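Chapter summary example.
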Amino acid sequence: MSPMAKLLAKVAPWLPSARAQADPEGPWSFRVLGEQDTRDLWSIVDEDPVANVFVASHLEASGSAAPSFAGGEIVGMFRHHELRAACWAGGNLVPIGVTDETGAIFGDHLGRSGRTFSSIFGLSEGVMDLWSTLEDFSADPFDVRPNQPLLVIDADPAVPPAPDLRFSRPEDLERVLPACAAMFEEEVGYSPFTGGSEHYRRRVASLIGRRHSLAAFDDDGAVIFKAELGTVSSQAVQIQGVWMNPDHRGKGLSAGYMAGVAEAARNLAPTVSLYVNSYNARAIASYERVGFRQVDTFATILF
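The structure predicted for these 303 residues follows.
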């Protein structure tokens, strides 16, 4: 049964499909999670600590499922007062524990709530099922990427780390920032400085300050390679923002740099992950050379 048919069976009980698919468990309910829901949310997050690292990082930092000071909140999906799935709702939507059973219904609820967001990302099943109904309430996306291999490494890299890779320092900001902007524009098609540069500048500076930014520089001080430890929990690190200067592509350098990033990340958590567009065969081959292997599939929808 398709996600839409499942949804119609719940919201239009007069339909034949609804009568045939009557759900003995009763209706779903939704509410924003609070501190009292923290343990139950952890139970869902811990089912897949790699895929759910974004929310795990938030829970470890805040200690609570309650709304954050920055405005993000987590919407819970309940049946008989039991938390079955959830979705981070801030500037982005990040489904947690959402499946083909819950996705379309959850998407309809989020759509009717009138929330705005700039992207949706997470495990492909949850994202795409959510989107199957949420799209009826949303602006047209800039891009839909349903097949992004989720790769992990939980052992020493298979190739030696590049010796010139290091953590970025505060005095590197003016050199690292343009490289970060170039990566962003290549990935999403527009500049992160659109509407002003200060917010993005603060984000890059924060990554540098937390020693979550790594880079290698040439003799003139230009960035050769850079990457960030974008999301960090005690169980997993998700690498983001991987970028190689076009002048240095095709030289076989990326595997050594990625080995260095993985090694640095494994000092923070036992498992390191990243997700990559399925059409980026060159990057996937480089990651596999380092020792990354696919464990699942992510999806991203960009607005």
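To summarize the output: The longest strand covers residues 143-153.
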